[in-house]
Amino acid sequence: MVAEIDPVVTEAAMAACGLTTANGMEIHHADGRQVVQALVRAGSGGPPAPAAKFDCVVGDTVEYYSLPYHLATREFAQEVDTVLKPDGIYLLHIVTDQKLGAAYLGAILNTLNQVFPHVAVVALKSNPDLYSSHLLVASRTELNADAMVSCIQLAHPSFSGKKLNAKQLDQLIGAAAGIVLTDDHAPLEQLVEPVVRGDRRDAVRLRVTRCREALRKGQLDVAEKEARSALLVDEASAEAHFTLAMVLQQRNDWAKALVAVNRVLAIDPEIFPAQVMKGSLLAASGEVAKACEEWRAVLALRPKNLDALQGLAYAREYQDEPAEAMKEWAAILALQPEDPTAHYALARLCKRAGRTEEAAGHIAVLRRVDPDSTKVHPNPMPMKSVAQALENLSL
Known about the structure:
Mean pLDDT: 87
Helix content: 55-70%
Oligomer: single chain
Number of domains: 3
Largest sheet: 5 strands, mixed
Number of strands: 7
Strand order of the largest sheet: 3-4-6-5-7
Distance between the termini: 57 Å
CATH topology of the largest domain: Rossmann fold
């Protein structure tokens, strides 16, 4: 059963998922609390009807920082508890951080603690001071949130979220100063105000967008100015540092670009494109072994990341291992049969090995899927000779 107040959202979700019908789901276009209250009333005449008893209720009503107050109160939590099975679980999704948003998150935690004997909080990023999703898990039976996190990590190896420990929960509760949200008193706007005031992402994003537009036009001076302007707005913005790294990489200023990308990873080590870029910058600086370490670290979490796979394939060739390089590129084609970079590289390697017919086959595919070779991932390795550059141009 799904409660969604806006039918347009349902249409968009069905289109995004490729559904032509509700696919067996019971969808109510009404306010979530009204739907829950109707379920409570349906079971109030005696033992609750089986249809009104759920294994899990998910509250996912956030938009930016906003959580409708009537879906955050003790009374609503009690209504949810009524429609849950005795061992059912209530999951509530909150978007905030644990620094500026400690009182906000703590008040919601206090409120759930009033209704459910067991409440855990899982932060979906390893850095709690970053704006991100938090999942509050509440139940009448004892929870094993650590096992839940482990299950997510098995299905999604890149997931780095963690269950908050007792000390962290106490800090949140202390920040809320005993506030419990009720239908008569739910000051969510005041609680979230420090988070809103401290959020500079919109101003940063505007400058980042202008920077990337300038990059597309080849206006490197304008792009760098916008990237540095974004950092003046928020020096701790990983997005702004990453954008500056892109500009500096375009300028072939590997050393400064590497400083910028290291700042990104210091702020948020989970931004894997920055780790991929770090590998490319190290390779361009001649530190190929270190570059390969970065790419392998990416592939440990994302085994099908093409940028990292391509970097390692280029490295094999740079290290005078053409046969191994060809195997690496063939493995990429097994994942992406029409990958232009792999066909480009194999055309070169086959041509060099005298396998002209195979080279011609790869060139034919390349001409078909990428006639101007604009989608070919550039070789991040330093050029060994003018001859190598001429060989690239010959294709």
